[in-house]
Amino acid sequence: MVEEVQKHSVHTLVFRSLKRTHDMFVSDHAKPISADEKSYKLKMNVKLQTEYSPVLHMPILKEIKEKCAQSYNHGHYTINQGQEPEYVITGTHPYPSGPGVALTADTQVQKMPSEASSRALALIVPPSKARQEATHTAASVADIHRQAGIPERSQPPVSSMSLLEAGGTKNSSQIARRLPTMPKPQWHPPWKLYRVISGHLGWVRCLAVEPGNQWFVTGSADRTIKIWDLASGKLKLSLTGHISTVRGVAVSSRSPYLFSCGEDKQVKCWDLEYNKVIRHYHGHLSAVYGLDLHPTIDVLITCGRDSTARVWDIRTKANVHTLSGHTNTVATVKCQAGEPQIITGSHDTTIRLWDLVAGKTRVTLTNHKKSVRSLILHPRQYTFASGSPDNIKQWKCPDGVFIQNLPGHNAIINTLSVNSDGVLVSGADNGTMHLWDWRTGYNFQRIHAAVQPGSLDSESGIFACTFDQSESRLLTAEADKTIKVYKEDDMATEETHPVNWKPEIIKRKRF
Question: What is the pTM of this model?
Answer without folding.
Answer: 0.65
